[in-house]
Specification:
The protein has one domain (3-21, 36-244): outer membrane lipoprotein receptor (LolB), chain A (Clam), CATH 2.50.20. It is globular, with a radius of gyration of 18 Å. By secondary structure, it is mainly β. It is built from four helices and 15 strands.
Length: 261
């Protein structure tokens, strides 16, 4: 697997979460019509988005994934996703033939990757991602992106009402975040910009389905724009269950060699 695809897998989410009680309730389609409400203040919108953010203990899903590179290259994978909220995101990626190619584990303090085809591994802190972006990428941001929550939204945001939706933006020292929010307080569009480099990630959410407690986006499109180049990741969730036991195993064989990058 070449370096570009490996990088995309590592940042699946960064650009890019998600279990142990009961079987999931029936998944229902979100209503097409959304009731209009009074335009909230900035603090009211912030509170409402946080209140309606997707929460879970564990999540288990299959994710149909497509990568499209700036050079026209494409790669299709099926990813098995298991996550314990605020603790671990485990991914196992297989190409069309069904042989596991890559296993990835995000925890709060590290990123681990096993290239099972070539017998290699990577074990790094999140500082590793600074070789690709100056922005502060962390576990919480990846988890939020994968569940359709704001990446780093804070109360110091501005908001405007537009037809059927709200538009909001907020800033941190390194990043700015521009959001389009539905009247059900779920995010439709999220543009994250690196203040230093002006690199951008544009995340679009669709096909919201009610799972357990809130609406979860089953379709996610992530576009990464950097120095005139664009890479796109398309995610489609299937077989989703939440708050059921999940098993997360990540043991690097002693025969594996460390990746060079």
């Amino acid at each position: 697997m070449n370096r570009n695809y490996l990088y995309l897998l590592i940042c699946l989410s960064g650009f890019i979460t998600l279990s142990a009680c009961k079987h999931h309730k029936e998944i229902q389609k979100a209503k097409a019509e959304e009731k209009a409400i009074v335009t909230p203040s900035s603090f009211s919108l912030f509170d409402s988005v946080i209140t309606h953010s997707y929460k879970y203990h564990t999540l288990n899903a299959k994710v149909k994934t497509e990568f499209k590179g700036n050079d026209g290259s494409e790669l299709s994978l099926m990813i098995t996703l298991r996550s314990v909220s605020d603790s671990a995101i485990w991914m196992s990626a297989s190409p069309a033939l069904g042989i596991e190619a890559v296993r990835i584990l995000f925890t709060r303090d590290s990123i681990k990757v096993m290239d099972k085809i070539n017998g290699r591994y990577l074990r790094e802190s999140y500082d590793f991602l600074k070789s690709f972006t100056t922005a502060e990428i962390n576990y919480a941001m990846i988890q939020n992106i994968l569940t359709g929550n704001a990446a780093f939204m804070n109360a110091a945001l501005a908001t405007d009402s537009i037809t059927n939706y709200y538009k909001a933006h907020c800033n941190s020292i390194t990043l700015q975040e521009n959001l389009v929010v539905t009247k059900l307080f779920r995010i439709l569009d999220n543009i994250i910009t690196d203040n230093a480099t002006q690199d951008k990630i544009n995340i679009k959410y669709a096909d919201f389905q009610y799972v357990e407690t809130e609406y979860l986006p089953f379709d996610i499109q992530i576009e990464a724009l950097s120095k005139g180049k664009k890479a796109t990741i398309l995610l489609n969730y299937t077989n989703v269950s939440v708050n059921v036991p999940v098993e997360i195993k990540f043991n690097i064989p002693s025969s594996y060699t460390k990746m060079k990058y």
